[in-house]
């Protein structure tokens, strides 16, 4: 393996009902922009963000998906791994609209699906978005918080519009993945490549990305 | 640097076509010919490309002609309102230059098969009346469903919570679970987020009074429009009305995100909802396969894109192979919304008109049936596409080429090099009845 500093790439998929603010969250985080008139996402789009945690450079490769289930129904080519496994090496950021309880039901549905189709220890984070609207409408975050605890996920209150809570979400994800990677290194588990991490060289075009610890 | 490679590619492609094919044995000759011709052709090509500010595309060197003007359009009709010569000349004109904005509302129903090319004025009036009634009937059905939803929302919630609590059963997204209520919900979410690029192109609709906009919104039960401008509210309400009607008209497809992108420009051109609806139905005759639940249509299209690139642009294909992106999954959105998100509004309309004109010409010659072996009536239908895509103002290719970055392509210049070629996606909109080899033949024949 290369002797140069390795670049860690973590894959992240945003999932959730339509118009809950998935694209707005990502665009606020990656480009620090917000548009009231954000267009519908068709199928999926892809963005990357580089960050450094505790001196370790990390790249988050973020798949922002469409809200309609039809795009997820068959062969989700955009978040399938090279080995064809479904959501195995992926982190899921589940987004719902805090002012619309139906969108939380959708999060529950996704959690069930992920638990069945992806690996059991998949990293899941829930973002309760549109917190800027909570003054105008009633909301109850207690239930969501206790639900998040039961599935081992963390819940964040976010507002893509005002940019609140966004960095916390992504930093938490990155930190948890980094922690997970470190512990998996210590454990020397044979299933290492399945832990949500792909180690790639700095220049991706030079050679095909080697899987970590192989 | 980039310009040079484009020019070389352009010449290479020209010589290859002139040599009569793209088979491997011609490659050495082509390389020699390119080298010999390069010196002469380069200067000219550079002058042309710097003048128009565009790149030389490998597939097409012809320029867009003038759009069909009002006077020409009127002259195409005989006294009883029939298009002379079955509309072949008219279609040829549209295919090579598009349509002047002032006559789009009259021309589009012909291009989209709402009116038969051989119909008389009287026949068209009768069809218009009948179709209007059919549309109104669909709308009445939609309204009934909205009312039923309001009454029966409590029972629906019980049903959904039942399915939630089912034990052990995977709640994997089941496409069959989509029903009219689901479509209505998503249609509304998408309608109020529709892009507003159409506004400058449609002044009369942009000036809609607030009271009228609110009336339209309440007629379709649209409430969540916040503080949007009246013209956007009325556009959203019209999107809801027509998309709901379509979902009932074509329940196999229903509604899929991306369909609003295809409808929005039609609404901006057609003032009457019923006319817009039938134009949309005409558009969806081909496009609906891309929205199928099993994704069979879109997968087939992406295969065709891949084949076309392989056939016409070996270098690009090689690059895609290197990235393991030769399945062209990155072009999913481009194909699905027919480049609506990649091009500006004006460019999109021009591209679509050329595409519709092309399809109409095939229909006219083949009678709409399985006649894959026959040639379309006129030559190069891709002509208008080069200027469409090269005149600058490309909107958001990066959104689509980002897919390639996900595959490891880090060079941005390479990104634009790739994106500049995807106007040819149009070629994948050939009738499904045609076999792939036929398509390939057509493509090489057309250029």
Automatic annotation (TrEMBL), chain A:
The keyword Nucleotide-binding applies. It is a lipid-anchor. One of its GO terms (cellular component) is endomembrane system. The keyword GTP-binding applies. It is found in: Endomembrane system. GO terms for molecular function: GTP binding; GTPase activity. NCBIfam families: small_GTP. This is Ras-related protein Rab-21. It comes from Musa troglodytarum (fe'i banana). The lineage of its organism: Eukaryota, Viridiplantae, Streptophyta, Embryophyta, Tracheophyta.
């Amino acid at each position: 393996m290369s002797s140069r500093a390795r670049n860690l790439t973590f894959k992240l998929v945003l999932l959730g009902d339509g118009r809950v603010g998935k694209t707005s969250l990502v665009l606020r985080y990656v480009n620090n922009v917000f548009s009231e008139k954000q267009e519908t996402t068709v199928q999926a789009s892809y963005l990357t963000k580089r960050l450094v945690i505790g001196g370790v450079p990390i790249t988050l490769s973020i798949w922002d998906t469409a809200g309609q289930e039809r795009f997820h129904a068959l062969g989700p080519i955009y978040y399938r791994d090279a080995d064809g496994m479904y959501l195995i090496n992926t982190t899921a950021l589940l987004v719902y609209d805090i002012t619309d309880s139906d969108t939380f039901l959708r999060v529950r549905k996704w959690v069930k699906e992920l638990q069945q189709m992806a690996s059991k220890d998949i990293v899941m984070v829930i973002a309760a978005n549109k917190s800027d609207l909570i003054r105008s409408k009633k909301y109850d975050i207690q239930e969501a918080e206790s639900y998040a605890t039961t599935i081992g996920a963390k819940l964040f209150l976010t507002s893509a519009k005002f940019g609140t809570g966004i960095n916390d979400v992504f930093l938490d994800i990155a930190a948890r993945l980094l922690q997970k990677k470190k512990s998996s290194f210590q454990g020397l588990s044979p299933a290492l490549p399945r832990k949500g991490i792909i180690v790639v060289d700095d220049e991706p075009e030079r050679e095909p990305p080697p899987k970590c610890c192989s | 640097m980039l310009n040079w490679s484009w020019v070389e590619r352009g010449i290479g492609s020209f010589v290859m076509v002139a040599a009569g094919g793209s088979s491997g044995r011609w490659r050495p000759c082509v390389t020699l010919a390119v080298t010999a011709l390069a010196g002469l052709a380069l200067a000219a090509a550079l002058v042309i490309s710097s003048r128009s500010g565009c790149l030389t595309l490998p597939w097409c060197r012809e320029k867009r002609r003038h759009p069909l003007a009002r006077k020409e359009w009127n002259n195409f009709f005989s006294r009883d309102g029939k298009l002379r010569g079955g509309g072949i000349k008219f279609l040829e004109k549209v295919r090579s230059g598009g349509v002047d904005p002032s006559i789009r509302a009259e021309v589009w129903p012909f291009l989209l098969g709402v009116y038969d090319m051989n119909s008389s004025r009287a026949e068209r009036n009768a069809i218009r009346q009948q179709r209007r009634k059919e549309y109104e009937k669909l709308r009445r059905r939609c309204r009934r469903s909205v009312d039923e939803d309001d009454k029966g929302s409590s029972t629906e919630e019980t049903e959904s919570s039942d399915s939630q609590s089912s034990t052990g059963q995977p709640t994997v997204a089941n496409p069959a679970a989509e029903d009219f209520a689901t479509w209505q919900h998503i249609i509304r979410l998408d309608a109020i987020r529709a892009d507003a690029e159409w506004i400058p192109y449609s002044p009369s609709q942009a000036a809609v009074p607030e009271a009228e906009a609110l009336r339209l919104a309440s007629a379709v039960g649209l409430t969540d429009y916040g503080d949007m401008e009246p013209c956007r509210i009325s556009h959203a309400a019209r999107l809801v009305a027509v998309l709901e009607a379509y979902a009932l008209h074509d329940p196999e497809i229903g509604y899929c995100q991306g369909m609003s992108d295809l409808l929005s420009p039609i609404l901006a051109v057609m003032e009457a909802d019923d006319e817009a609806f039938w134009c949309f139905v005409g558009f969806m005759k081909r496009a609906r396969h891309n929205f199928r639940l099993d994704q069979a249509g879109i997968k087939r299209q992406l295969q065709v894109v891949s084949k076309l690139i392989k056939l016409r642009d070996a270098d690009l294909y090689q690059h895609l192979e290197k990235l393991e992106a030769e399945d062209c999954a990155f072009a999913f959105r481009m194909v699905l919304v027919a480049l609506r998100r990649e091009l500006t509004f004006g460019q999109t309309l021009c591209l679509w008109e050329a595409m519709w004109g092309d399809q109409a010409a095939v229909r006219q010659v083949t009678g709409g049936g399985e006649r894959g072996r026959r040639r379309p009536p006129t030559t190069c239908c891709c002509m208008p596409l080069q200027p469409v895509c090269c005149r600058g103002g490309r909107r958001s290719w990066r959104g689509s080429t980002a897919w390639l970055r996900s595959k490891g392509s880090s060079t941005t210049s390479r990104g634009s090099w790739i994106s500049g070629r995807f106007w040819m996606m149009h070629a994948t909109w050939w009738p499904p009845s045609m076999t792939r080899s036929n398509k390939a033949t057509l493509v090489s024949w057309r250029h």
